[in-house]
């Protein structure tokens, strides 16, 4: 709710969104992220980086909303094959293994 999307381009530029009431704190207090020195500045919305989207939209019907069933439909693999992929840590849902 307070900290929004983080986006970057291919030139090492990063942008993120925060609530307006935290702007001054971020600009005055944040000078490092980890070991990396950073300089934050406020930009107008007209300067927001546009991400290239190489995703592909699909429509499928799965027998249930179980993760293995959905991935099986999308990849045309059996649920047992998908189970092995999930157990191997090759699947993330909402950025979690």
Outline of this structure?
This protein has 97 residues and is an alpha+beta fold. The protein has helices spanning 23-29, 67-75, 79-87, and strands spanning 3-8, 14-18, 32-33, 36-37. A hairpin with a 5-residue loop joins strand 1 and strand 2.
Describe this protein's structure.
The strands form two sheets. Strands 1-2 form a two-stranded antiparallel sheet. Strands 3-4 form a two-stranded antiparallel sheet. The protein is of the alpha+beta class and 97 residues long. The chain has three helices and four strands; from the N terminus they run ββαββαα. The mean pLDDT is 89. It has helices spanning 23-29, 67-75, 79-87, and strands at residues 3-8, 14-18, 32-33, 36-37. The longest helix has 9 residues, at 67-75. The chain starts with a strand and ends in a 10-residue tail after the last helix. The chain folds into two domains: 3-47, no CATH class; 56-97, no CATH class. Helix 2 crosses helix 3.
Give the fraction of residues assigned to helices.
25-40%
General shape: elongated
Largest pleated sheet: 2 strands, antiparallel
Which structural category do the helix and sheet elements fall into?
A: alpha+beta
> What is the helix tally?
3
Estimated share of beta-strand residues:
15-25%
């Amino acid at each position: 709710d307070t900290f929004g999307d983080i986006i970057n381009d291919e030139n090492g530029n990063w942008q993120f969104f925060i609530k307006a009431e935290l702007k001054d704190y971020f600009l005055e207090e944040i000078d490092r992220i980890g070991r990396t020195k950073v300089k934050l500045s406020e930009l107008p919305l007209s300067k927001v980086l546009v991400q290239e989207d190489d995703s592909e939209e699909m429509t499928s019907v799965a027998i249930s909303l179980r993760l293995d069933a959905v991935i099986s439909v999308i990849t045309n693999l059996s649920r047992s094959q998908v189970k092995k992929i999930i157990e191997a840590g090759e699947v993330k849902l909402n950025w979690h293994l």
